[in-house]
Amino acid sequence: MRWARPRLGTRDDMLTAVRASAYCTLAALLLTGTPSAAQTPPAPPAAATFNVFVRSMPVGFERIELVRSADGWTIRSRGDLGHPVNLQNQLFEIEYDEQWHPRSLNIQGIRGDTPFSLRTTFDATGATSALEQAGQQADLTEPTPANVVVLPEYFFAAYEALAARLSGAAVGDEFPVFVPPRGASLARLDAVSTQRIETPSAIIDARVHHLSFEQAGPPVAAEIWTDAAQRLIRVSIPLAELDVAREDIVSVGARIRRISHAGDEDARVESEGFSLAATITTPVDRPRPEAGWPAVLLVSSSASTDRDGTVSGVPILGQVANALADAGYLTLRYDRRGSGQSGGRSESATLETHASDAGALVRYLDRRDDVDEDRITVLGHGDGGWIAMVVARRERRADNLVLVGTPAGTGSELIMEQQRAALDQLAAPETERAGNVRLQQQIQNAVLEGGTWDGVPEAMRTQADTPWFRSFLEFDSADTLRRTRQPLLILRGSLDQQVGPHHSGQLELVARARRREATVETVTLDGLDHLLIEAASDDQSTYAGLSRGSLSRSFTSTLTTWLERTQ
């Protein structure tokens, strides 16, 4: 975990202080939004609340309103974003004329503990900004075209203007963007697709605009989703694992059908006083084996709570399910408790309770007449592999175990390792690195050993002082894995930067030392990243363009070959 303390001094320092926290610098680069040919949307619906997620964890909300006036449009919002953004939006208001040319911008808020305000006016010569923070003032003038779309960082209401402009855009169009007070940039519309969202009260057919934004390095990809009224419903930036979604499409009971198969069927499976929503995918155009289909339960990582295992825009488990069904396997994937269409409460869930849910699904598969009860495999992706390990330890009905990109060690060790990797990637100064590492260690000590929370920002404590985070920190993969008995396949991509090669090596050592003489096989798949997609290099920035990536055939081939051998 990390947060940035605002710095004061020169004008450049002041401008930097208003930008994203260092931990989310990637996200800041992405919010270099984009516009398109102006179109007038229909009369807007009532104001809407948007939930903001970083790494699939809720960090706050923004209440957005679009108002039609006699000669243009006004977008307003208020909101509150916790760690790692740490921003109170006390007032956001931007005015556009009828052609969606900006007139004025007014922002008042608190970043960290420091109040600030930003006022920008637009005319034929460009944008003039006045920034005030902690009693200091700075002025800046930037040339901008008249049709620029204004996208201040972390004020997502601004994307309502972008949603309106995109309705008239054609693939290949390039558009000017202004991120005050930083300056102007360009964006390109690369593709347009559709997604169907099922909510308890409606079905929304969304248009997904795939965009790439210019920056100092490689372009950064983002998705802007709009509804039939040309209103904003979602902003997704895979590189930063940032997702901003209208409340109705992420409410309990809502589901985005990212991927489908002719053999799909929806099911509800009873767990501990509630039911889990699942998709069962059965092979089609194949004769069913006399003993039933071999079955695979797919467990997503904590980076994704939906049944398709979506991470950075890629429905990993949805693609795995389809590939396995085509190879003759029945698969089951599910929404975690308290998310999607599943019941239960997520705020009280722990790693162990999630494993109990997965165990109920293994027993459900074992009871099905069309499943071979002697060929049930549990496959976990990322830290979903930890849940799969617990299920394998507990359930005699689980016959095989597959860990894909799964970390070794304890949760405490993993969090510290990932934080240090993020600090390395951001080239943080040594003093800043040391401060953030100390803060993270203090948080983990407070969660595990009852240490002090003094000096820990309240937003960070709120996120960390939970049953889930405690259970994650306490989990010891070695202790769990050594008590499993199933044949084990450990898979990782050679370009996986989230879970390094030492993790699969440690898992293999533990597995080979098990008392039971179960087989262990470790395979590194050349050219694949953590999302099981073929990547051009080991540069993490390649994640920017993966929102429409496809599962590598080498992964499917390796997995099915091993499953056939272990029958």
Number of domains: 3
Compute the number of helices.
13
Cα-to-Cα separation, first versus last residue: 43 Å
Structural class: alpha+beta
Helix content: 10-25%
Q: Which CATH C-level class of the largest domain is it?
A: Alpha Beta
Shape: globular
Percentage of residues in DSSP E strands: 25-35%
Spatial extent as radius of gyration? 24 Å
Seen as an oligomer or otherwise, the chain set is single chain
The CATH superfamily of the largest domain turns out to be Alpha/Beta hydrolase fold, catalytic domain
Q: What would the average pLDDT be, to the nearest integer?
A: 85
Using the 3D structure, state the CATH architecture of the largest domain: 3-Layer(aba) Sandwich
Stated plainly, the CATH topology of the largest domain is called Rossmann fold
Largest sheet: 16 strands, mixed
Note poorly predicted spans: 1-44, 538-548
How many beta strands in the DSSP annotation? Answer: 26
Describe this structure in words.
By secondary structure, the chain is an alpha+beta fold. The chain has three domains: 11-249, no CATH class; 258-410 and 476-565, 3-Layer(aba) Sandwich (Rossmann fold), CATH 3.40.50; 412-469, no CATH class. Helix content is 25%, strand content 34%. The chain is built from 13 helices and 26 strands. The chain has helices at residues 11-18, 25-30, 159-166, 316-326, 351-367, 384-394, 411-425, 430-449, 458-464, 467-474, 477-481, 501-512, 553-565; strands spanning 48-54, 57-69, 72-81, 87-97, 102-111, 114-123, 126-133, 136-142, 149-150, 174-179, 183-198, 203-213, 220-226, 232-237, 242-246, 255-257, 264-270, 275-281, 293-299, 310-311, 314-315, 330-334, 371-381, 400-404, 488-493, 520-525. The strands form three sheets. The protein has a 16-stranded mixed sheet that branches. It has an eight-stranded mixed sheet with strand order 17-18-22-19-23-24-25-26, with helices on both faces. The chain has a two-stranded antiparallel ribbon with strand order 20-21. Helix 7 packs antiparallel against helix 8. The radius of gyration is 24 Å and the shape is globular. The model is unreliable at 1-44 and 538-548 (pLDDT under 50).
